[in-house]
């Protein structure tokens, strides 16, 4: 489980094509400190398993399913990535509960700079729009953000200078893809109540199975 508070802006050092998967070598001395084989590290919001670590770098295998369903398939040598280690039990929940399971991808639509912050508009897959509400939480490339405006196929977020300086959202431009993870609590509520707002009964459960 993660919190969406990026610890480090890392870099893709190498990408090895494994046929039905890819192996990424990622530079990230902060998140690599103390990491070992089998540990989890979120890369642009995707929970990956560490294969090996050495000299401030870690390698991780990414299956075709993940490459196809996230923006990781677009990464290349030199790409900057947001990195976060899992939250320690008893640690502070600085952002919100983030699983590292990407629900879909969006695209940066436009950026509107201001004196002290920047408004970024992101396209939203239609099937995810029901989980996104004004002032609710959403994860964009592994960053816990508060929704400013929620439309049928987009949402906007307001980025402070710290976010712009320390994450990939400081450099991504219109047309760039981003990973999206909606608030898991919204999905649990929908599951419990049913999409039409009424509690599920046995017939509903059989239909969903």
Automatic annotation (TrEMBL):
Catalyzes the dismutation of two molecules of 6,7-dimethyl-8-ribityllumazine, resulting in the formation of riboflavin and 5-amino-6-(D-ribitylamino)uracil. It catalyses: 2 6,7-dimethyl-8-(1-D-ribityl)lumazine + H(+) = 5-amino-6-(D-ribitylamino)uracil + riboflavin. CDD domains: Riboflavin_synthase_like. The keyword Hydrolase does not apply. Pfam families: Lum_binding. Lumazine-binding repeats lie at residues 1-96, 97-193. Pathway: Cofactor biosynthesis; riboflavin biosynthesis; riboflavin from 2-hydroxy-3-oxobutyl phosphate and 5-amino-6-(D-ribitylamino)uracil: step 2/2. PANTHER family: RIBOFLAVIN SYNTHASE (PTHR21098:SF12), RIBOFLAVIN SYNTHASE ALPHA CHAIN (PTHR21098). Its EC number is 2.5.1.9. The keyword Lipid metabolism does not apply. It comes from Streptomyces lonegramiae. Gene3D superfamilies: 2.40.30.20. Keywords: Repeat, Riboflavin biosynthesis, Transferase. It is an enzyme of class 2 (transferase). GO terms for molecular function: riboflavin synthase activity. Residues 1-96, 97-193 form the Lumazine-binding domain. This is Riboflavin synthase.
């Amino acid at each position: 489980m993660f919190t969406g508070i990026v610890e480090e802006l890392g870099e893709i050092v190498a990408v090895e094509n494994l046929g039905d998967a890819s192996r990424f070598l990622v530079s990230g001395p902060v998140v690599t400190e103390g990491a070992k084989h089998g540990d989890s590290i979120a890369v642009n919001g995707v929970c990956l398993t560490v294969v090996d670590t050495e000299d401030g770098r870690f390698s991780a295998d990414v299956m075709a399913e993940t490459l196809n369903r996230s923006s990781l398939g677009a990464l290349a040598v030199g790409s900057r990535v947001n990195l976060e280690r899992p939250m320690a039990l008893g640690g502070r929940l600085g952002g919100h509960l983030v699983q590292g399971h990407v629900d879909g991808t969006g695209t940066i639509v436009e950026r509107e700079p201001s004196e002290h912050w920047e408004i970024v508009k992101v396209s939203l897959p239609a099937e995810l729009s029901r989980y996104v509400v004004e002032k609710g939480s959403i994860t964009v490339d592994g960053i816990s953000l508060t929704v400013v405006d929620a439309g049928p196929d987009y949402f906007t977020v307001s980025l402070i200078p710290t976010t712009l300086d320390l994450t990939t959202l400081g450099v991504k431009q219109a047309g760039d893809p981003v990973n999206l993870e909606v608030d898991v609590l919204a999905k649990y509520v929908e599951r419990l109540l049913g999409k039409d707002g009424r509690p599920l009964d046995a017939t509903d459960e059989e239909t969903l199975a």
